Amino acid sequence: MKRAAAQKIEELFDILFIDHRNDHNTRDTPQRVAKMFVEETMRGRYSSPPRITDFDNVEQYEQLIVTGPIELRSTCAHHLMPIFGHVIIGILPAADGKIIGLSKYDRIVEHFAARLQIQEELIKQIERYIVEATKPRGLAVRISAVHMCKTHRGVKSSRAGRMVNSSYYGDMMSDAQLRAEFLQECVSLERNLF
Fold it and tell me: Which of 97, 98, 182, 193 has its CA 20 to 30 A from that of 161?
C-alpha cells in the first residue's frame, strides 16, 4: 500500500512540477508522505479500535466522571489539512454497566481521529464506541479544535478561531443540570489551555 501511494504522490509532484528526483529537499518526500499517511495520519482506517479493558462497576458508582482535555490531532477530509485541539468526555456510569480505565478514552480519541475526518462525525464516532463498550446512563463528548483548512487557506482566519461542538447521550441529553455540571467542568479543565 505504501509503495503504491508513494508512486501516486510522485505522479502528483510531476504534475505540480516538483522535482522529487533531483532536489535534495524533496527527493524522498513521496515515500515519507506515503509512510506518514498509512502509519500515522490515517492509521485509524487500517487498524481495529483499541481493546478496551473494562471493569464491573462493583461499587455501583453513578456520579459524573469527567476526563480531559485529551489531545486531538486529526486531518480534515475536505482539504487534507491538520485539525488540532482537545476532547473532554463526561461519563455517567450505570450501576450495572462497565467502567474503563482513563487512558482508554485517550486511545479511543486517538484511534478515531487518525483518519480523514470532519469534526461533526468524529464526535459521534467517539460517542458511539464508548456507549457500545460501557453502556453508561449518560455520556457527553465535547471537542474544541482549530482547523488549518480555515487558518491556512481560504479566509485565513485567526489561529484562535476554533470549532466547538458537543454530543450528549442518555441522561446527559435529557438532564439540563447534568449538562451544566459537565460544561462547568469543561470550563475548569480548559482554563489553563489558552
Answer: 182
